[in-house]
């Protein structure tokens, strides 16, 4: 068909506007274009609706798989916990010589077993911790407490490990207002941060400092260790994240810290530079006056 003829094909219509008779001209090519766009739009909307349903379905499937993974991890951890506990207590008894004298070589072998069992126990405990925190079983049991006591007891327990690595560990604790917190859970936070600081520092020091504002207290665990690249910082507090996967541990410590601190109404973050040490800082609201 002749294009210019199509272009010129017009439809004349009469319409009345404000009483005056007016001629309205509609270009049929324009109408066809409009119809085509409308059809394309309807097609696009149908496609979007189909994609939305597919996504919704995939999300539901993922949720089920995620739940299955959590249940599997929890069940496996429970299964491992009991034999691991008896293994570590028996190895400890053997090492202490309570079940008879041991030769040096036997002692060395048992020390290696003990260290591995202890590490496995720690991983199992962390998996159980995160699953209990996620499921809401481990909600904080809030009591008035002095954070300095929590910090001091963690530092005392961490000293032998730091010394074995020649890393100096010090605390600078200011007088802090009381906080409302769960002692056992907050101990886990400080312990995870201090353990990391020692684990990722080969020389230098680990320093735990505190300060306080009107409504909150601040705890900072600083080290002179390997540091973390800027690109990795946003993922540090997610489950199973490790910068280097050959690092011992399941990669749950920081996720546990974040869950606990946020359950107390606080915040946690990291400041670090690759090769330049790290600082992990968290805040907790101070106890309101009763
Ligand atoms: N002080 C630190 N210095 C350098 N890197 C750190 C430090 N703390 C954490 N990281 C990095 O963040 C990762 C996650 O830390 P997280 O404590 O969650 O797991 P992990 O220590 O590897 O294992 P675990 O579950 O036993 O704690 C670590 O593997 C490490 O790569
Ligand atoms: Mg850790």
Average pLDDT number: 89
Please state the oligomeric state of the protein chains shown: single chain
Helix- and strand-based class? alpha+beta
| Bound ligand species | adenosine-5'-triphosphate, magnesium ion
Q: What share of residues is helical? A: 40-55%
Tell me the strand order in the biggest sheet. 4-6-7-9-8
Major sheet size, sense and barrel closure: 5 strands, mixed
β-strand amount: 15-25%
Order of helices and strands: HEEHHEHEEHEEHEE
Could you tell me how far the N terminus lies from the C terminus, measured between alpha carbons in angstroms? 89 Å
Determine Rg (CA atoms, Å): 32 Å
> Residue ranges: pLDDT <50 for 5 or more in a row?
3-17
Shape: elongated
Number of strands: 9
Number of helices: 6
What is the fold's blueprint, element by element?
Blueprint: H1 3-8, E1 10-17, E2 20-27, H2 28-95, H3 104-134, E3 143-145, H4 147-164, E4 167-172, E5 179-181, H5 183-199, E6 204-212, E7 216-223, H6 253-263, E8 267-272, E9 278-285
Parallel strand pairs: 4-6
Antiparallel strand pairs: 1-2, 3-5, 6-7, 7-9, 8-9
Helix pairs in contact: 2-3, 3-6, 4-5, 5-6
The structure holds adenosine-5'-triphosphate (ATP) and magnesium ion.
């Amino acid at each position: 068909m002749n294009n210019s003829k199509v272009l010129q094909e017009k439809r004349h219509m009469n319409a009345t506007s404000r009483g005056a008779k007016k001629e309205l001209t509609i270009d049929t090519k324009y109408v066809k274009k409009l119809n085509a766009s409308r059809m394309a739009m309807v097609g696009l909307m149908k496609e979007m609706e189909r994609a939305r349903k597919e996504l919704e379905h995939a999300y539901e499937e993922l949720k089920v798989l995620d739940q299955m993974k959590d249940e599997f991890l929890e069940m496996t951890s429970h299964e491992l916990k009991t034999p691991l506990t008896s293994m570590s207590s028996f190895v400890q008894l053997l090492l202490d010589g309570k079940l008879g004298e041991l030769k040096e070589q036997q002692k060395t072998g048992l020390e290696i077993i003990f260290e591995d069992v202890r590490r496995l126990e720690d991983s199992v405990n962390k998996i159980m911790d995160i699953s209990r925190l996620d499921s809401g079983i481990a909600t904080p049991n809030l009591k008035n407490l002095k954070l300095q006591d929590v910090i001091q007891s963690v530092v005392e327990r961490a000293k032998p490990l730091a010394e074995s690595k020649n890393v100096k560990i010090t605390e600078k604790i200011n007088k802090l207002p009381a906080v409302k917190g769960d002692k056992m859970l907050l101990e886990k936070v400080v312990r995870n941060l201090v353990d990391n600081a020692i684990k990722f520092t080969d020389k230098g020091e680990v320093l735990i400092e505190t300060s306080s504002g009107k409504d909150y207290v601040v705890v900072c665990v600083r080290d002179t260790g390997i540091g973390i690249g800027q690109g990795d910082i946003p993922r540090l507090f997610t489950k199973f994240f490790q910068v280097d996967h050959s690092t011992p541990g399941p990669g749950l410590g920081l996720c546990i810290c974040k869950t606990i601190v946020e359950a107390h109404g606080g915040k946690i973050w990291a400041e670090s530079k690759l090769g330049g040490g790290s600082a992990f800082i968290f805040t907790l609201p101070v106890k309101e006056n009763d």
